[in-house]
Design goal:
This protein is of the alpha+beta class and 91 residues long. It has a domain of 58 residues. The chain contains two helices and three strands. It has a three-stranded antiparallel beta sheet with strand order 2-1-3, sandwiched between helices. A hairpin with a 2-residue loop joins strand 1 and strand 2. It is globular.
């Protein structure tokens, strides 16, 4: 396993993406989250803040809806290496 920490954002979101603020916060905090041993957990991010960490995506999403309702938030698995997701039919 490579113990080096990432130095920048894993990837950029397109300009104007609704979760740009949350993604930037996640990327900014990623080195700390990895250093603290949180790889594999799920970060609940709202605005500029990592709100909480969860062991499952389901629990993180549930907590996001309970706390923020229909206001935007991001749930993302803490990963040293981002694995792109390709959706058929999307450009």
């Amino acid at each position: 396993m490579n113990d080096s920490l990432p130095t920048g954002r894993p990837y950029e979101l397109p300009p104007g993406h609704p979760l740009q603020t949350e993604w930037a916060a996640y990327c900014r905090e990623l080195p700390r989250l990895l250093a603290e041993g949180n790889e594999g957990r799920f970060a609940l991010v709202q605005g500029e803040n990592i709100v909480s960490l969860w062991d499952s995506r389901c629990d993180a999403v549930r907590a996001g809806y309970q706390r923020f309702g229909l206001t935007k938030f991001l749930v993302h698995q803490i990963q040293r290496i981002e694995r792109p997701i390709r959706i058929r039919g999307m450009s």
